[in-house]
What does this fold into?
Amino acid sequence: MYNILIVCPDGGSTSWYLDSPIDKEMKYETYISIELVDAIDKKYKTIPEKTARAITGLSMGGHGAFYLSFKHQDIWGAAGSMSGGLDIRPFPNGWDLPKRLGSYSDHQEYWEENTVINLVNRIKANDLKLIFDCGINDFFYEVNEKLHQKLTERNIPHDYIIRPGDHNWNYWANAIKYQLLFFSDYFDSQKNKE
It folds into this structure.
């Protein structure tokens, strides 16, 4: 419908899309941000520029999409998150996070450095188009609200959507439609600048 190439890499069930400071073999940030982007650009007829790339994900993948885009604004021009775990600190025992970052009590610095909400200061004004949403009954709702507030306080433009919903595929099947339209509009706006 939008003439967009969609790549869906396997981020594992608990990678959190980061290069683990605990497990030196787990390099998901490197894999997605460098190796995968290079491989796709070599294999397919892409526009190998940030203005032609977006990244999004749901749940852990929502964390990953914002985490990677905030850290690599030279690679992606737009990013989205659906029901993302945008602050991992409230969940110190969840989803194998201690296996990726060590225990919160022993390695608090790793947790602080690798949570999305603490990377907002890296965003350059109008350099990264952002959309995120979360259902009001989702267990990640509060961390999404806090990110929205922080972005608003810092005058960082973003689209933020809340509506009834849980952390499930019914919610995400609807949310992805908004994200695809957002990305399509972003890509069109970049073409019009040429």
